[in-house]
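Before a colleague's protein record goes any further, I have to sign it off. Thanks in advance; the entry in question is below:
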Amino acid sequence: PAGVSLSSMKVTSVSSSTTTAAILTTTAPLANGKSVVRISHYSGVLTTSSFTFTRNGRSGTFYFEAIEVTPKRTGNYIFTSNSTIDNYGYLYANPFNPLNTTSNLLTYADDNEDETSDQFSLACTLQADTSYTLIFTTFDPDVTGPFSIFTLGPSRISLRRLSTLSTFYIATTFTTPAITVASNYSSALGMDSSMFTRNGRSGTFYFEAIEVTPKRTGNYTFKSYSTIDSYGYLYTNPFDPLNTTSNLLTHADDDGYSASDQFSMSYPLEGGITYILIFTTFDAGVTGSFSVAAVGPGRVSLVRNNVPTVTTTSTVSTTEAPYGMYDTINCALFLQLSIGLSNIHRLYCEIQISPSRLLKTL
């Protein structure tokens, strides 16, 4: 029986030390006894250090493994996955561009033909001694785990794990490495965090302002991770907590599918320019820990920006009287009181001296 070559390519960037390629090739005679089908078995594992991309038609980050496929004979080949995770398969003519997953795409599959399992099964006619790229990825984002691929066809297939996407030994249609870089930021909202009134809502909301400075120009996605219902805003500088619509670029409540209460928003950013990302809550008066992941073509500097608490206060305007006015008023009142007391005293004296006069008056 023929063997399967599974030697690794030379790497110049990210590689996964946990991925292995198992050699297992068998032959199965056909009914007429004149032909054989060669079965090859490839094993690997997706980890958090695997390559990531955004799968066509979905949002989020998907781990994937790229495998170079080179058949020895022209014919029809079938690729079937086997794993405990719900997976997805793509087959490309070279080159494979992670930034454009529809370019050079030959075929793809989610479930098998009968849709009786969540393992893919795809078939395609391949040319002898021509290299193709098989992509093993997942149906849902952020999923990792071991997997196997069975290849059936008329001849031996060379299967090589592509440990780097920036070095292909073929002509490429793009000049920059198709690498997605993730940057992470973790913090917590507390009773001493900055506060503002969120646009369109009443009440006091705790928030944290984060300075975002990308290294490269491109499209970046910001996604929150927390046990609290979160809300995100992205601004150009400066951010004014008294006017939350000023300089606003984009904002998000839930993700694009409303499948969670964590925000996910994307926006093209210019390299070297600082923006302000606001992490806050959907409901007022809520605190808790959180993380924000920034995914894009370059690293992103994420630094906390200390914005003072904004509170709305009511002021009462008072007009002070000119200097000396109160003294004048008090003096006049004192004179009037003195005169009144003097008159009372005089009347009392008259009554004491001449009671008959008082009686005549009455």
Confidence is low (pLDDT under 50) at residues 1-28, 166-177, 311-329, 356-362. Residues 15 and 155 are 29 Å apart (CA to CA). DSSP finds two helices and 21 strands in the chain. The radius of gyration is 39 Å.
